[in-house]
Amino acid sequence: MSKPKKLTKAYLKKKEKRLNKRVFKEKLKLWRDKVIQRDKGYCQICNKPLLTQPKNVHHIISLSSVKRKYPDLLENIDNGILLCSYDHKFAPNSPHQSGVEFGLWLQEHKPEQYNNLITILKNLKV
How far is 41 from 114, CA to CA, in rounded Å? Predict the structure, then answer.
């Protein structure tokens, strides 16, 4: 029979970190599924149905910023958009090619979502 692990501070901290990571991943998966459902499985830029293609759910405010500064945006579907692979990474107005162009596209084509994000960011205390 093996000895039970000592309940040291380091052990408890490691266990808590592992649990927090699991909870974070579960929240992220739920958020992703809600964005796909809201966008009805279509790329929001080219309107192509993403039946068998990869579904790229993009964070408008980056995930690293959400983790560091804006945890309230983690589960907010206004901070996500469904894109096909091309529009996600390679199109001229893709969020990865030009954040400014993508921001302008979002403001023009998804004004309610854009305005909701702007309002949330203004109201958050950083």
Answer: 20
Number of compact structural domains in the chain: 1
Amino acid identity, position 122: K
Q: Say which DSSP state 56 is in.
A: E
The answer to the question of residue 69 being in a domain is yes
What does pTM read for this prediction?
0.83
Has residue 55 been placed in a domain?
A: yes
DSSP-H helix ranges across 1-126: 9-38, 63-68, 85-89, 99-109, 111-123
Residue 26 is part of which domain span? 12-123
Position 41 in a domain: yes
Q: How confident is the model at residue 41 (pLDDT cuts 50, 70, 90)?
A: very high
* Phi/psi-derived region of residue 47, left when phi > 0, alpha when psi is between -120 and 50, beta in every other case: left
Beta bridge partners of 49: 42
Digit-coded pLDDT (tens) for 6-16: 778 887 788 78
Cα 45 to Cα 125: distance, rounded to the nearest angstrom: 31
Q: Is residue 3 part of a domain?
A: no
